[in-house]
Amino acid sequence: MIKLTKFDNGLTLVTNENFSVRSVSVGFWIGAGSAFETDAVNGISHFTEHVMFKGTELYSAREIAEKFEDYGANFNAFTSKEATCYYFKCIDENTEGCYGLLSHILYESVFDEAELDKERKVIAEEINMVEDEPEELCYDVLARKAYAGTALEKTILGPTANVLSFKGSDVKKYIGQMYTSDNTVIAFSGNVSHERAIELTKKYVLPLCGNGKCEKLYAPKVYGGGFGKYEKDFEQVNIAIAFPSLEFDSDLSAVQSVVSFCLGTGMSSRLFQRLREQLGLVYNVYTSSSAYKNNGVFGVYLNTGGKNTVKAVAAVKEEIERLVNDGLTEKEIARAKVQLKSTMLFGVENALTMMTACGRYALYTGKPYDIDKSALDIENVDRKAAFSFCEKYLVPAAASMAYVGKKQYIDDDIYGIFVK
Question: Which of 47, 154, 223, 290 has the fewest CB within 10 Å, making it most exposed?
Fold first, then answer.
């Protein structure tokens, strides 16, 4: 059962009780990410996440790692465009120890300049590593087009120059602005009761988290469009195409999931069967979606040999036009439903998966996640709903496109081929 409590200072606690397992996963979800950054501090959210584990007055960075491992726990963190999450997973008997430790780190880190200096170099290497990851580059280029004019177009890592300039004082200022109680959700999942989670939160978090108010602006709705490129001597061409689509928790999210599965998820999907199995143009092709507070995109990613670029893009457009014109078959929809529901319900058995679902949902909506409703929404998708979605959102003329690869393979107007 999923329960939610909101404390007087705005802090939100959500729990997914599952007493049939012996593990507990806990995540602190902060509504902070690159979508709330200016150019001058782009990358500060990710930098803060990295340096959060670098020591407190009580523990060094090494001692923090050792203490989590003494508990047999896995711990980590990640940053996205609109959220940062710090989390652990442990056996149930060590929940209090891990929770107290993570709370201490989040509210008592000292951000020693020597430790920050070492981490700056680590993050600079991470940025360099992305330069060798064409898929990551492709999505960064795509974001600059799909979300142009808003902070959603910024990279999560930020530019190297910014990262090398951040000081401890910058991190503390940012935490004061963004890591406020009303901008924080704590999600528990696994063998722990809601009452116990409240008790631990009152003991370890409420005395430290304060009553601050976060003043942030979400990116307004944007419709993107246009073509972006990054020329580099990779062996393959990488292309990402995005259609303006649904915001987080849209009433049509289940419909989009069904369409995505049929068009480009798995080996039975239309794009995989056409571009790889029939035409042999690609090794990898898939659909995906991303959703934020006011924005979202639905898109196609593929990589191909440079000489097949035009043929591959043309084939994607043909499949999308066929989908828009003819819709999905009953058989395709039935297959998508059972696969999507299976994946969702398998996740119920994983504490970390459910912590992520509950934490993200509460952060964006302020409400408890309802997995039964999500499953029912999928079951209720029919051909008419799928057809309406495709007709409204899969409009080639509205698409953004990103290209990453060698210069000689974009002599042809591949964007023009797609949007016209």
Answer: 223
pTM (2 decimals)? Answer: 0.96
Cβ pair 236, 315 in contact under 8 A: no
Note whether 296 and 355 are same-domain residues: yes
Q: Which two tokens stand for residue 262?
A: 């049929």
In terms of residue numbers, what domain contains 166?
2-209
In the structure encoding, which two tokens stand for residue 178, read together?
Answer: 């963004």
38: amino acid identity, one letter: T
Half-sphere exposure of 239 (CA within 13 A, CB side): 31
Q: Are 144 and 250 within one domain?
A: no
Chain centroid to CA 373: how far?
A: 22
CB 402 within 8 A of CB 214: no
Distance CA 297, CA 286 (A): 14
Element holding 391 (H helix, E strand): helix 383-393
pLDDT in tens, 253-268: 999 999 999 999 989 9
Same domain, 251 and 361: yes
Query: Pairing mode, if any, of strands 226-231 and 400-405?
Result: parallel
Percent pLDDT > 90 in the chain is 97
153 is a catalytic site residue: no
* DSSP element (H, E) containing 298: strand 296-304
Instruction: State the distance between the two ends of the chain, measured CA to CA, in whole angstroms.
Output: 50
Residues 382 and 348 in one domain: yes
Edge-to-edge, what's the strand order for the sheet holding 237-244?
Answer: 226-231, 400-405, 237-244, 296-304, 282-291
pLDDT, tens digit, 9 for 90 and up, residues 143-160? 999 999 999 999 999 999
Distance between CA atoms of residues 85 and 129, nearest Å: 22
Provide the H-helix boundaries in 186-308: 194-204, 206-209, 253-264, 270-271
Burial class (CB in 10 A: 0-12, 13-18, 19+), 155: buried
β-bridge pairing 23-30 and 2-6: unpaired
Residues written for the chain? 420
Can you give the CATH number for the domain in which 203 is found? 3.30.830.10
Looking at the DSSP assignment, which residues form a beta bridge with residue 4?
A: 14
Residue 152 DSSP one-character state: G
What is the Cα–Cα distance from 150 to 168, expressed in whole angstroms?
A: 27
State the total domains in the chain.
Answer: 2
Structure token pair of residue 325: 């014109």
Q: Other C-beta atoms within 10 Å of 179: how many? A: 23
